[in-house]
User: Fold this.
Amino acid sequence: MYASSGLFPDEEIMTQVTLTRVRSSFSGFVRKAEAGEPVVITRYGEPVAAMISMTQMEQFQELSTEPARGLASLAGGWEGSEELVERLAEVRGLEK
Assistant:
């Protein structure tokens, strides 16, 4: 079983499917991913790849290119989260 990342609000409804099944119904799984439901592709029972929506891909790219914003930017933030992000940026700036 794959580890939960916590990045998707409904991660527990993530589809897990074999590579053979994806080959036979590719467009259906693309539609699921496009709708925001990540599809984990397995080979011999082990997760090897995933299909996600472009929105989710952009979130991952944003996280990797702007690490100072971190998970608060993915989660949509919470009351006061901007202050935390600013404080983290200040601390990281002092460490350099």
User: Anything to note?
Assistant: The chain is about 50% helix and 15% strand. The beta strands are 15-18, 39-43, 46-51. The first strand starts at residue 15 and ends at 18. Residues 68-95 form one domain.
